[in-house]
Amino acid sequence: MTMTQDSSDTSAAPRKAAAGRKAPRPVHPLLHKLYELYPRLFGARFLPLKVGVFEDLVTAHPQDLPAAELKVALGLHTRSTRYIEAVASGLPRHDLKAQPVEPVAPEHVHHAILELFKRRNGKSPEQARAQALRQLENAIEASGLGRDGYRERFTSADDQLQALIGEALAAVAQKDARREALKRAFAASGKTVPEFAQMYGLDLDEATELLSSREKGNP
Asked: Contact, 45 vs 91, CB < 8 A?
């Protein structure tokens, strides 16, 4: 009886595990079509799409991409985690030739970063937080708003998200202060950039970037 019971329990385990797994969501048929037509936009690596891409697609493929169905398919695509990752990374928007045409607005990058954080926070909180901080720091520096401008424009009613934004702003402030201190030290040193980099233990590329960059906006 014991062997029969053990055998029964073992065979039941895979069935229970399989039952607990969610069935994969069916892929909208037009997403397959978009991949066939534009693999560089809708393939293994998603790219942010230009504003007005819906109209471009309808015009280019009126038979293959009916407007009503295309609207649904693009909605699914742009709400997917992979697409949000592309926006959060700071990549520019691309046209149907997969050419960059315009930057993503700071608001869209910011909200993509926070949405990605919320989606990942439950599974791997530390990793999600570290990634969100890196992306927010990059977004702040790329926004052209300066720290004060970014702080004024982007706030959150969620205490956790607001703390995340504040920490990223503080990290950017530290980097800005270090950059300015290095610039002053370089100006007073009389050294060339390679000599200065060696003196301060900096990578040459890092030193060149730090000493040539200018802080955007006000602190």
From this structure: no
Instruction: Tell me the two tokens of residue 173.
Output: 């402030």
Closest to 136 measured CA to CA, from 104, 100, 161:
161
pLDDT per residue over 84-107, tens digit each? 999 999 999 999 999 999 999 999
Which residues, listed in sequence order, are joined to residue 36 by a DSSP beta bridge?
none
- Residue 213 tokens, joined: 């960059």
Task: Tell me if 168 sits within 8 A of 138, measured CB to CB.
Answer: no
- Residue 131's closest CA among 142, 144, 115, 147? 115
| b (16+ CB within 10 A) / e for 116-154 | bbeebbeeeeeebbebbbebbbbbbbebebbbebbeeeb
Q: Is the pLDDT of residue 217 over 70?
A: no
